[in-house]
């Protein structure tokens, strides 16, 4: 009697082009808005991004993610925006892409599968890829200077098909989750908006005929800032006096004095004016309101009257914090 023995062989055929993919939670890359002055922060939307929001995947799929697949991000924080040294907050909005099409609400899971963003990123194309995150500040933040920062908790959860068998059925899934922190920062610097009207002495036949000009200039500086305002000596100073100059190099001496007094307003030391010395709203800067400094300008009457002509000078105002 003969006996036949054989080996049973089994095989599973995978559809052409099928591959495997794996995702993992990885350390994030910080996002920085950089260094901006307070006016920029208050009046203009500022943008920043993180090149890695904590999810990295490799592998490949040949079809768009199905309705049973999911890539979700959930972002939470104990604060409501970037917090500075005095407790001021700069709010900002999170986005899944570089436009404003897909805002991410804090505390609410955001589903990437429905956006097509992962396909554009090539997240599962065979080489490790990270998912970026984008931020835009909100206009209107009147804040003090200093370093601002917020720490976000970024939680990813994913569940997607990693392999397609014969007949197009899923034969494997990658399911996982992970949380990492992401730091967002912005540095606010001091800034001022200055309004300085020209000084006009009009016309007179002799130096004694020029009237005193009483005017003011206004300064709006960063919230909470202390500063001093200086006026330089102009372009033609001589013997401690400012001078206007004619096109043929004749001179007419004049000066600018603090408030309604006789103390010369200059650019060095006590000749400067402090924010606490403002005639209107003295003290620290408010960020939005103006502090007003009065002054009077006079042509010196103890000089000889120069030849008739047009005389002019240019004086630079500077603010020091």
TrEMBL record:
Residues 1-21 form the signal peptide. The keyword Cell wall biogenesis/degradation does not apply. It comes from Pseudomonas oryzicola. The keyword Signal applies. Keywords: Signal. Residues 12-154, 180-316 form the Spore coat protein U/FanG domain. InterPro entries: Spore_coat_component (IPR053167), Spore_coat_U/FanG (IPR007893). This is Spore coat U domain-containing protein.
């Amino acid at each position: 009697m003969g006996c036949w023995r054989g080996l049973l062989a089994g095989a599973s055929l995978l559809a052409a082009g099928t591959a495997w993919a794996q995702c993992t939670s990885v350390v994030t890359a910080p996002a920085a808005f950089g260094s901006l002055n307070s006016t920029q922060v208050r009046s203009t939307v500022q943008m920043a991004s993180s090149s890695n929001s904590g999810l990295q995947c490799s592998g490949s799929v040949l079809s768009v993610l199905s309705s049973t697949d999911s890539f979700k991000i959930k972002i939470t924080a104990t604060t409501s925006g970037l917090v500075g040294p005095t407790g001021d907050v700069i709010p900002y909005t999170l986005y899944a892409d570089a436009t404003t099409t897909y805002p991410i609400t804090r505390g609410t899971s955001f589903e990437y599968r429905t956006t097509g963003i992962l396909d554009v990123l090539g997240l599962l194309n065979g080489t490790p890829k990270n998912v970026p995150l984008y931020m835009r500040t909100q206009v209107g933040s009147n804040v003090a200077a200093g370093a601002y920062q917020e720490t976000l908790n970024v939680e990813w959860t994913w569940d997607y098909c990693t392999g397609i068998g014969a007949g197009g059925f899923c034969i494997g899934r990658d399911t996982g989750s992970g949380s990492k922190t992401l730091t967002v920062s912005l540095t606010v610097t001091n800034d001022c908006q200055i309004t300085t009207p020209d000084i006009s002495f009009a016309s007179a036949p002799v130096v004694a005929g020029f009237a005193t000009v009483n005017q003011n200039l206004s300064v709006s500086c960063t919230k909470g800032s202390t500063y001093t305002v200086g006026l330089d000596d102009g372009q033609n100073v001589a013997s401690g006096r400012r001078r206007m100059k004619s096109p043929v190099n004749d001179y007419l001496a004049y000066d600018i004095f603090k408030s309604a007094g006789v103390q010369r307003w200059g650019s060095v030391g006590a000749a400067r004016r402090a924010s606490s010395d403002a005639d209107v709203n003295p003290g620290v800067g408010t960020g939005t309101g103006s502090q007003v400094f009065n002054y009077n300008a006079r042509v010196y009457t103890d000089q000889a009257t120069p030849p008739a002509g047009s005389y002019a000078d240019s004086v630079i105002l500077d603010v020091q914090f």
